[in-house]
Automatic annotation (TrEMBL):
CDD domains tied to this protein: AdoMet_MTases
Natural source organism: Pseudoalteromonas caenipelagi
Lineage of source species: Bacteria, Pseudomonadati, Pseudomonadota, Gammaproteobacteria, Alteromonadales
Protein name: Methyltransferase domain-containing protein
Location of the SAM-dependent MTase RsmB/NOP-type domain: 121-381
This protein's record includes keyword RNA-binding: yes
């Protein structure tokens, strides 16, 4: 397997920055093909007859990608050895994990955990990701945002009964006036279903304890109509710095950030919040459409370490929830060991909490969006 330590999105961003003369169509083709080649890497290498540890020729990878998508190859010497018959012969002998382009360990783990659902989820996670926007209702509404973006040649459709737009024709989203005015945030439509589980109201005190760059904190602030208090915490200051900039652009002024330096930062906040969001670090297996390189970077023992960390965060950070308050545990994982099993273990040890709502989005099974899990727990008075 030939992979570098670099993240695909960063490499793509760098190349696009260098190739300033490419038009929008060229840029989109480059992004789509790069993500697809990473997504289908294992299937492509197997079709070409490579072993897992071989370093394949990139000409061959590109050629196989074209042929398997029913395209004709250009008459280049680097590609003369390739034919669709050769690829299909090799694929006839391939395993399900190879055909669906997953590492064996992940295929095995997910099949054990999800049973018959896994094949559909595996296929659902191989679809290219769509782009969704969350309207910042502190500044505008979804229809006005749609009209404003259309003026800049960015077409969107409104998802019924939501503030979510699906982008159907791309333009320079982040150079748009709507973006600089803070009218939207890019956020998957599945991810937009997590903050509502908190059932926030204006005036409440809310902590988002694994806030990262603040996708969900900003959503919470909008749902609270900018009234009350949101504390966004993380162990990485650079993420909180991005969050502060985003909050400023979004016109959010009831939010503070705080770096978690040690266990005291959280202990001091015991019983202080009406709502607690724990959007814990996870395998990211629900968002493989967006980050297909994670398939090749993850390892089974990373997931085991994450499961231990998630359990610790849930146990320690739940202390910040007041009696009568609500806690939401969330992941972007499709694995029950990071989701339902964590919550059930927590409830067994903490009978003062009761499960009141549970959301499980499984691509290919019950959603076209990314895979997310959320459980809302209420702390009894
Ligand atoms: C799933 S991401 C959060 C995404 C974010 N909520 C959003 O909506 O954009 C998980 C976050 O947890 C943070 N994290 C990792 N370990 C942590 C810990 N022990 N306490 C708090 N945050 C932690 C990571 O830095 C990461 O930003």
């Amino acid at each position: 397997m030939m992979f570098t330590e670099q993240y695909a999105d960063k490499v793509i961003e760098r190349v696009l920055g260098e190739q300033t003369y490419w038009d929008l169509t060229n840029r989109q083709t480059f992004v789509t093909d790069t993500y697809n080649i990473i997504r289908w890497w294992r299937k492509l290498t197997v079709a070409l007859g490579y072993e897992d540890n071989d370093s394949p020729s990139m000409w061959h990878i590109w050629g196989a990608y074209q042929l398997l998508n029913a395209k004709t190859l250009p008459d280049w010497s680097e590609l003369t050895a390739l034919s669709i018959e050769l690829l299909n012969d090799n694929l006839d002998k391939a395993t399900s994990a190879q055909l669906n382009s997953y590492p064996d360990w992940l295929w095995q783990r997910a099949s054990n955990e999800l049973g018959e659902q896994w094949l559909n989820v595996a296929q659902g996670l191989n679809n290219p990701a769509k782009t969704y926007l969350r309207t910042n209702t502190l500044k505008t509404n979804a229809s006005a945002l749609q009209v404003e973006l259309a003026r800049e040649n960015i077409e969107c459709q409104l998802l019924p009964d939501t503030d979510t737009l699906e982008v159907t024709k791309y333009g320079h989203l982040f150079k748009s006036k709507a973006f600089s005015q803070g009218w939207f945030e890019m956020q998957d439509a599945g991810s937009q279903q997590i903050a509502p589980l908190l059932n926030v109201k204006p005036g409440l005190r809310v902590v988002d304890a694994c806030a990262g760059a603040g996708g969900k904190s900003l959503h919470i602030a909008a749902l609270m109509q900018n009234k009350g208090y949101v504390l966004s915490m993380d162990i990485h200051q650079h993420k909180l710095d991005i969050l502060k900039k985003r909050a400023k652009r979004a016109g959010v002024h009831m939010l503070e950030t705080r770096l978690i330096k040690n266990s005291k930062t959280v202990k001091r906040l015991k019983d202080k919040f009406d709502r607690v969001l724990l959007d814990v670090p996870c395998s990211g297996t629900g968002v493989l459409r967006r980050n297909p390189d994670a398939k090749w970077q993850l390892a089974n023992n990373n997931i085991e370490n994450l499961i231990t960390l998630q359990g610790e965060i849930l146990q320690r950070y739940s202390q910040m929830c007041k009696p009568g308050g609500r806690l939401v545990y969330a992941t972007c994982s499709i694995l029950p060991s990071e989701n339902q099993q964590q919550v059930h273990a927590f409830l067994e040890n903490n009978p003062q909490f009761k499960l009141v709502e549970e959301l499980s989005l499984l691509p290919g099974v019950n959603t076209h969006f990314d895979g997310f899990y959320g459980a809302a727990l209420e702390r009894q008075v």
